[in-house]
Each structure stands twice: as C-alpha cells, then as structure tokens.
Design brief:
CATH architecture of the largest domain: 3-Layer(aba) Sandwich
Strand order of the largest sheet: 3-4-5-2-6-7-1-8
Distance between the termini: 68 Å
Radius of gyration: 25 Å
Order of helices and strands: HHHEHEHHEEEEHEHEHHHEEEHEHEHEHH
C-alpha cells in the first residue's frame, strides 16, 4: 500500500502525477483515512466516534456525509452542532468541513441565510443548533451528523427531537463526533447495541498537527485528568471533587413503597428570562420516615417567568404537594407574586441562600451517602449536574441541583411539625 511506504518514496510518487491525477488523489478519502476513520462494519444505526482533540473527527464526519450523498443514501440531512455558529464554522466552512472535502464538481452550494446546503445531485442538508431542539421537531431526515454532542447545552432534548425525525429511507443513520464528557446521554449510547463505537486519541493524528500543539498543549496536559479526557478520549465518569458519583446514583433508583409524609416542590428561579437564560430548576421530592424520594424533575428552560411559575404550580397539584419551596435571592417577592397569580391558594415558603452552594449541598450529599435518598426514576439532566458539581467556577448554573438541595433540606434537615400521611 502506498501509504505504508517511506515518506520520501510517497513524495517521489506524488511528483509523477499530473494535475487531474493529483486532484483525484486529493479527494480520495479511502486513501487518506486511517482505519479508525472508516465506518465500522455491521448493522448499526448510530456511529459514535469518541476521540481526542485533533483526531480528525470533523473530517471523518464530513467524509461520511459526503459518501452517503454520493452513494444516493442521503437526500435529507441534519447537521447539528452546539450552536448554529459552530455548525457553519466547523461542519460546513471549516478546513475539514463539507465544503472542503467535496470535489469541485460535486461541491454543495451553501446558503447561510437559509442554513442550507444543496448538492448538485439534489441532496439537502440543514443546519440546526442543539440550543434550539424544538427546531428539529417536524423535519424528517435519512442522515444526521451530530457534532460535539457532549457540548450540547440540552443534550437529551436535542437528541430526542433528532431521533423522532430520523425516519426516512430504508436505513437512516447518524454519525456522532464528540470528545467525551461525563453526561448520562453518552453513557446510554455507549452501551446501546444499535450504536457502533469508535475510539481514538490525539496521538493517532499527531503527524498532521502543528509542532507547537505537541510542545505546548500535549506536554502540558498529558497524564492529567483533563488530558486523559481531551487527548486520550477516556470516559471519565467521576469528576474529582464532585459531591456525587455515577455509581452512587445508579444504585439509588427505587420508587416509594411506604406512605409519604410530606411532599414539596422546590424552585430555583433563573436570574434572567429568554431562550438563552439558565433553566428554572423545579424538583419534586417527598419524605417517608427517615427516607427521602426525588419524585420528578420538572425543570424547564426558555419559558417566561409566568410560564415556569405555572409549571411549578402544576407540579404542586400533580403530586398533591404540601408546599412550594422558592429560593428568594433572585426577586423573591416577584416569585411569590407569580405563583399566587397562577393559584392564590398555593402554599409557598420562601428561602434565602446565606451560604455558598457547596456548603448548602454537602449535608444533602451526606444523606445520599447514608442511603437515605432514592430517585423514583432516572433523571439524566439533574444527575449530570450532581456528578459534575464541585463548586468550582463554571459557566453553567446548577439550577436543577440547587432546587434538589432546597427540597431535601426542607424535608430532611429542617425540624417539622407532625406531618399528615398519604399515599402517592
């Protein structure tokens, strides 16, 4: 095989090619790709590429889409990235994106204002932002490329909407290219028999990376936890310093079997409103004797203040709760007014955060360690926040976790009067 020859012989051979032959070889992905960049054999639905920075994930995803288009297998394609800007800059216009990998005579036309790529054969690809999963509601696809899945702000919602629309053709397929992070969705995909998993590290493509990358980045981070994740693409489910672990939570799924003494709905309201605001944490929990049960995560994002207040009141009635616990540091009077605007009779207790998040969360984490808290069912978004929360400064607000802490603190760490009993 040509690629197995010494580089001097490869260069000598390339020098004998004319322009047409050179261009044909330039776009021959079968020649350039490493074995781990070829689609795996088997009857898979999803191809999950878990690889380190610089592995060539983008090139692999783009070439996979190109191959399906040229084989007539892809006519309606979804391209999903963390944001629309990422989809355009990386998946379409990037140096390894779709415009770069397609030969000139088969290159798609890109219409940025329409978020649309159209190939000469008629195949079309639309760009989507994982921040707006509802935009995936309705469109149908036979092919999807999901880039940097672990960086999606709403991974479960985005993935669910994508799967509902991946229903065209005889064999719809999805390629997922991502550096691993400890999120529940990734864990489910890795063990799904319909998912073919390819792993790869930065080191596999080191000869094509800038020397400064090896000198400055790899040398700094290899053998560190961050380097194991970002370079070696290891699946590191437990985060150092986090108050909860995956194994701990996985062993605590159980619905309540005894009568519940008290049920609360806790709210951690967002500081701002709008589609890019933090989520409003809404957690329903109950106490039975010395045990507590997390019954539901009703958290929401993108709703108006009146919208999330209505959602909290709905949970209050759905679970016949005793009280709503509302964190009042962010516009406490407004929160009370909103809740009573929805239902004047709803019982509300306002609480204030006088200590830091870690200090408030530690006693609740201790309840889990004692085996005194169970989750009635898996709650991926909440549990992702729990197993990654260390208290370190972060761009992400642990809104669901904050609401969980308020709920369990009220149920288990605050003296109560004689509760009334009822069955759920």
């Amino acid at each position: 095989m040509l690629r197995s020859l010494p580089k001097r012989l490869i260069r000598k051979f390339l020098g004998t090619l004319n322009k047409a032959e050179s261009e044909a070889l330039l776009y021959d992905w079968a020649f350039w790709a490493r074995p781990t960049q070829h689609p795996p054999p088997g009857n898979w639905t999803h191809w999950l590429i878990l690889a380190g920075r610089g592995f060539g994930k983008t090139r692999t995803g783009a070439e996979w889409v190109r191959a399906r288009v040229e084989a007539g297998q892809a006519r309606h394609i979804a391209l999903i990235a963390p944001t629309l800007g990422d989809a355009r800059a990386v998946m379409v216009e990037g140096e390894s994106g779709l415009l770069a990998v397609c030969p000139p005579d088969r290159r798609p036309k890109f219409e940025p204002s329409k978020h649309l790529l159209t190939w000469p054969c008629g195949a079309k690809a639309r760009l989507f932002s994982a921040d707006q999963p509802e935009r995936l509601r309705g469109p149908q696809h036979d092919t999807a490329w999901a880039d940097e899945l672990c960086a999606w702000r709403l991974p479960d919602a985005g993935w669910d909407m994508l799967m509902f629309g991946l229903r065209l053709g005889g064999k719809p397929q999805c390629c997922i290219t991502t550096t691993p992070k400890p999120i529940a969705l990734l864990k489910r995909l890795v063990i799904d028999p319909a998912v073919a998993v390819t792993t790869g590290s930065t080191y596999e493509n080191i000869e094509n990376l800038a020397p400064s990358f090896a000198r400055d980045v790899i040398a700094k981070y290899e053998n560190t936890r961050l380097g194991r994740q970002e370079l070696a693409a290891e699946l590191l489910w437990d985060v150092p310093g986090a108050l909860w672990s995956r194994d701990q939570i996985d062993g605590l799924y159980a619905p309540p079997t005894a009568r519940l003494e008290r049920i609360v709905v806790a709210i951690d309201p967002p500081a701002t409103a709008g589609s890019n605001a933090d989520a409003c944490g809404i957690i329903v929990a109950a106490r039975s004797g010395r045990m507590a049960y997390v019954l539901a995560d009703r958290s929401c994002q993108g709703l108006s203040p009146l919208g999330w207040a209505a959602r909290a009141v709905e949970a209050y009635h759905d679970f016949q709760a005793d009280r709503i616990i509302a964190e009042g540091n962010q516009g406490g009077d407004m929160v009370l007014a909103l809740l009573h605007q929805i239902d004047p009779n709803v019982a509300v207790r306002r609480v204030h955060a006088r200590r830091g998040k870690v200090t408030r969360a530690e006693p609740v984490a201790a309840l889990y360690e004692q085996g005194r808290v169970f989750h009635a069912a898996p709650m991926p978004a909440l549990e992702d926040q729990m197993v990654t929360f260390t208290g370190a400064p972060s761009a992400d607000s642990p809104d669901r976790l904050d609401a969980l802490v308020w709920a369990l603190a009220d149920l288990m760490l605050t003296p109560k009067g004689q509760p009334r009993l009822r069955s759920l």
